[in-house]
Amino acid sequence: MSHLELKNVSRNFGGLRALSKVSFDVRRGEMLGIMGANGAGKTTLFNVITGHIPPSSGEITLDGKRLTGLRPDQVCRQGVGRTFQIVKPFPNFTVMENLLTAAMFGAAGIQGKAAAHEHCRRVLEDMGMTRQADYPARELTLSGQKRLELARAVCTGAEIVMLDEVMAGLTPTEVADMSNTIARLHQKRKLTVLIIEHVMKALMNLSERIVVLHHGEVIATGTPDEIGKHPKVHEVYFGESR
Amino acid sequence: MKLSSAVLWAVLAAIFLYLPFSGSDYLIGIGLSMLMWLALTQSWSVLSSLTGYISLGHVVFYGLGSYLVVVTWQQIPLWLAIIASGILAGLFAFLVGSPVLRVRGPYFVILTFGLAELVKYLLMAAEAYMGISSRLLFGTPDITIIYGIMLVLAVASTVLLEGVHRSRFGHGLKSLRENEEAAETLGVPIARFKRTAFVLSAIIPGMVGAVMALRSTYFEASQAFDPMISINVIVMAIIGGGDSARGPLLGVAFLVLLSELLWVEAPQYYLIILGCLMVLFVVKLPEGLLGWFQNRRRRLMEQKA
């Protein structure tokens, strides 16, 4: 059975059709890449799933339960965590305090402070960030802040983690590092991961399956190999038709 | 709690418990005024310090409380009127909370200010319509009783702020102050939390207003809803600084003592000096006295190490 399912999801902004009858499903434990040029509707897709923007029509379900119509905090408590393309840390909190919010209010819903601390400490360990626990978030580098976003999403106790360009703006070494971290978390914590990425190599390596969006429509779905050879994808990306 | 802060609170408690027995009306008056500002500033901080939604209309709760006591004077028991004042203020916050807390930053500041003024003018119009220009209270309780009630309110307000500040709820409020969208994405029910904080911060000033009406023995809307009360609260919170209950305590003590000194020496300068202090603190010490003390202590520790 599919874990997360989208059925004919559309979203209009005035006359612009940002998403047009998008349907696909995500299996439990899968790593699914979402590809598309700027303005293809990738971030809108995330916003519609997490309740930041209501869809104009269509339905989104998690394990058969409707997500559509829920507020972002409710979606989070259902077990969906996400990062933002433009990072949104709590700047005056320490790294640990940032994570505690996620652990106490997300799907994990850990009430006690000590237990929440322990939960977050383990996530930091998995990410190799233990030493930064007491850093104020504003003093982290961009790479550090992107990692914090990822750590926070995981700390909510989410089963599905949605990553919106967590590698954008990073150096090649940092990209490799981030790729490894994502792969490690995915395996160790049995997470379902949806990942939007412009760094093509990383996306191809990480994803088990890829959905390609173009002008708000799904034009192709398949394994990275299949997508690499897909004529429609070539047409859109390179302007050639074979 | 650390030993030093336990000692600090014990000394304070001793001073405030001793004052009514000092026999000096002047000292009791200063004590009462400190307790009143303390209760107001701590309760204001529950919403405004913790969520960053700076309210410039805190006086509206105070005024509503005053009014309720005055209109029910000698018709219902006093204790009931005081409790009802708190409930009325909380209810008002609950009703206006949802729409008001939708706007942020400077818009929220202006909106809360305008709301307090609106209620003031509505009440003045209603009173004028009924042909009442001011109401007098006869047979109000002795100042030591007023002092006692205010002491309870100040302690309650302090405990409330400290409790919220340390709780999971308080962590959620501070998260949404840092970044509202991120907090919501991490599962914080921001609308409900803001509204709850608003209601919690309204109840005590409602009761404070009720008690202060007994102290002044009359009610006039322009005084019970005086915007200077809201402004004073903000100045005290900013001069004190920080999220915990210690900040407002420092700010209140500093400003009440300063104003006492100035009333004696140079009353005409009070507002000028207040303005200068405000500028000085915002520019030079944005974290307030509490932040300044903490930085100093940290620096001393570093020098030792």
Keywords:
heterodimer; A: about 240 residues; alpha/beta; six-stranded mixed β-sheet; four-stranded antiparallel β-sheet; 9 helices; 10 strands; globular; B: about 300 residues; mainly alpha; two-stranded antiparallel ribbon; 14 helices
Task: Give a structural overview.
The complex is a heterodimer of chains A (242) and B (305). By secondary structure, chain A is an alpha/beta fold. Chain A contains 9 helices and 10 strands. In chain A, a hairpin with a 2-residue loop joins strand 9 and strand 10. In chain A, helix 3 runs parallel beside helix 5 and helix 4 (113-127) packs across helix 5 (142-155). Chain A is globular, with a radius of gyration of 18 Å. The relative contact order of chain A is 0.17. Chain B is an all-alpha fold. In chain B, 79% of the residues lie in helices and 1% in strands. Chain B contains 14 helices and 2 strands. Chain B has helices at 3-18, 25-51, 59-71, 78-100, 105-129, 143-166, 168-178, 180-185, 190-216, 221-224, 227-240, 246-265, 270-284, 288-304; strands at 135-136, 218-219. A two-stranded antiparallel ribbon of chain B has the order 1-2. In chain B, helix 12 (246-265) crosses helix 14. The A-B interface holds A 50, 52, 71-74, 76-77, 81-82, 84, 88-93, 97, 100-102, 104-107, 109, 111, 113, 152, 156 and B 168, 171-172, 174-175, 178-179, 181-190.
List the helices and strands and how they pair.
The complex is a heterodimer of chains A (242) and B (305).
Chain A: E1 2-13, E2 16-27, E3 31-35, H1 42-49, E4 57-62, E5 65-66, H2 72-77, E6 80-82, H3 95-105, H4 113-127, H5 142-155, E7 160-164, H6 172-188, E8 192-196, H7 200-206, E9 209-214, E10 217-222, H8 224-229, H9 231-238
Parallel strand pairs in A: 3-8, 3-9, 6-7, 7-8
Antiparallel strand pairs in A: 1-2, 1-4, 4-5, 9-10
Helix pairs in contact in A: 3-4, 3-5, 4-5
Chain B: H1 3-18, H2 25-51, H3 59-71, H4 78-100, H5 105-129, E1 135-136, H6 143-166, H7 168-178, H8 180-185, H9 190-216, E2 218-219, H10 221-224, H11 227-240, H12 246-265, H13 270-284, H14 288-304
Antiparallel strand pairs in B: 1-2
Helix pairs in contact in B: 2-6, 2-9, 2-11, 2-12, 3-4, 3-5, 3-9, 4-9, 6-7, 6-9, 7-9, 11-12, 11-14, 12-14
